[in-house]
Each structure stands twice: as structure tokens, then as C-alpha cells.
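User: Hi! I'm working on a homework problem where we have to compare a predicted structure to a textbook description. Could you give me the structure for the chain below?
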Amino acid sequence: MKKLFILTILSLQSLAGFGPLSDSGIRGKPYNEIIKDLQSLEEKLPNYVKVIQYGESEKGTPLFVVRLGKPRTGAKTVLISGATHGDEYLNIADRLPMFFSKVKMKKSFRKLVNNKVIYIVPIFNPDGYTKIRRENSKRKDLNRDFPLLSQNKVRLTQNETKYWVKFLDKQVNKYKLDVKLSVDYHCCYGALLFPWAYTLNVKLEPEDLMRHNQLGELMKDEIDNRYVYGSTGEILWYTAAGTSKDYYYDRYKALSVTFEGEFKKEHLKYEKHQKWWLRILKNL
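Assistant: Happy to help. Predicted C-alpha cells:
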């Protein structure tokens, strides 16, 4: 009876146009509808918004990134991603393209996005997202599959990471972009996690630590004063080799963090995330 009840609820959700209820406790639209919404935004603002398919998942699902702004030499570049762990969807990253587009249209805020390029992968792991599962279709954790070239760790065993790293490197080299910041949205702790995640022993250089701490203070000011910040080892007391933040920091020397949202509640703080991003862009 319980199984039948659950199946009935899921069927009703599907009929109502809702996607899966994530492990974060936050429901999202089906993946294809998220992409259609972003493509509609591109149609309205073709000179600012570009939706690009950069590859396909191990299962063959198309992988999309939204590029905001015109890439040009030395452009300050921001990387944002959501649902790298498919069951940790927060309904933040997929809404940010609309927010940044509104900022672009407002004369009072336009300077914040001028001469900046923002790449947003709304759902990095679409198959895991659809199945409400942490891993991809091959049961691989994508946030353990990024390379760490300074440690001679190549990884990149999965299409999702392989295609993305290749695409991003090509964009950076082609346009000579200056990657300044990456934020990968996860759940559920209430924290901002810094590199290095792969070890408890290696620390950030003092100047880089100061910059990361400043980002953490902005988070506490604008999103939730209860949240904490620091390295993965300091906050969660474990190591995680192959994370995106370690790769971006190692490869581009960028400010690079994992944002750990609050269970069932982070999507309700979307306006606070907007304020956080306005302050980030102002100080970038």
C-alpha cells in the first residue's frame, strides 16, 4: 500500500509538470523544461544569453551551459554549477541566468556585469537529477572525477566531467579569459567550503585564504549568519579527492568554493543569493 501511495504521488507530480523531489528536499522542473526556459531567455536576449550544448552524458543526455556576456580578452569570468550531485538540487543555479539578465537590463546595476562573462551549468548531472541520485547513470560521483594536474591526477573518466573540462579550457584559451571565481551549489550543511578538499595537510596561501574568507563573510552577511566557512577538512572532517573546486583553484588560481545549502530551505533564500551575487560582482 505504501509503495502504491508513493507511486501515485510521483505520478501526480509528473502530471502537474513537476520534476523529482531532490534529496535536498527541494523539487525542480524536469531537466528538459529547465533547458527550454533558458532557451526562451536566449530568444529574448540573444546579444547577452547563449545556451550551448557542450557534450552529452554517459547516458546520452545533452549537457548545456548558459553563457552570459560576450567573451573577450581578459574578461573576468565566473563559473557556476548546480546538481553536480544529482540529489542535491537547490533551485538556485538554474534561476541565476534570469537574475543576471535583469541586472544587465537595469542601468543602475549594469556596470556589475559589463566586461564579465558568466558560465552557468544549471544541472551538471542531469541523469542523477532525474533519478534523484547522487551519482550519474554509471553510478560515478562526478565531484570525485575532476583532475588535479599539480598532483598528476588526471581522472576525467566520465563524459560529464570530460566534456565540461574540455569545453571550458577551449573557451578560456580561445578568448583569453581570466577565470576569477567558481561556485558549485550542493546540499546540505550550511557552509562555504574552500580548497583543498583532497587533503587535511595542505593549506591555502595566506592571500588566497584571505580572499576566500572575505567571500565567506559576504555569505554570512547576505545569506545566513549561522553558516560557516573553511576548508572541507575543517568543516566536514573528511577529504574528497577530485572535486571541482580543487580543479578550478589548481588550474586557474580562481577563488573556488562549494556552497552547501540548507535542507528544504535554500531555495527560499533565493533573493538573499541575489544580494550575495551583487556584492560578489561589485568586489570581483
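For your comparison, note the following. DSSP finds ten helices and eight strands in the chain. The CA atoms of residues 135 and 210 lie 33 Å apart. Good luck with the assignment!
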